[in-house]
Amino acid sequence: MARNILRPPSILCITSMDTSSYGLAKALVPKLPFILKTAAFHSLWLSETSSKWDLKSELIIKTIRSFTHNSKPEPLSKIQHLGLRDPGVKGPMWISRVTTPAPEEDDVRQALFRAIDGLKEGGETYTAPELRSVGAEWTGYRAHVSANAPELSITEEDKYTNLMKEVSSSVTILYLHGGAY
Prior knowledge:
This protein is mainly α and 181 residues long. It is 36% helix and 9% strand. It contains 6 helices and 2 strands; from the N terminus they run ααααβαβα. The protein has helices at 19-28, 32-43, 55-68, 76-82, 107-119, 156-165, and strands at 93-100, 134-141. It has a two-stranded antiparallel sheet.
């Protein structure tokens, strides 16, 4: 008759952990005092959310917040710099860049200023922006290409021509991104 031998639970050993568990442990160990304080406050009904959340929810949410809300604010220029990295175009997509030059006539701009001035209720002021060229991208699906295929080094006009060859619908979506409009 075979005997089942019960083994005691193994102690967490960093050398036998996979890298994701090690990274999680490395991130959570310094947060243990915070986690224990949060659990104690919740259990004693001293936290603001103890009447609304269960213990598990409060621990998860407050621990995640502790990672995302850094106590030392970063300069805005440093945060903006993180978003300036261009990963480039790759995969099954056509991207054709185009720049529309600023118009020579000023009629539309002046009509906009008259509309703004007509909506003023007091002494509001604003800086009249100058006319500038506008950059845009035509984006479309590129068939029969792998997910890591690089962007073709052809002219923007050729990219647009190839994009239009693969269009299967007359729908166009205008997507404004990357700034204040």
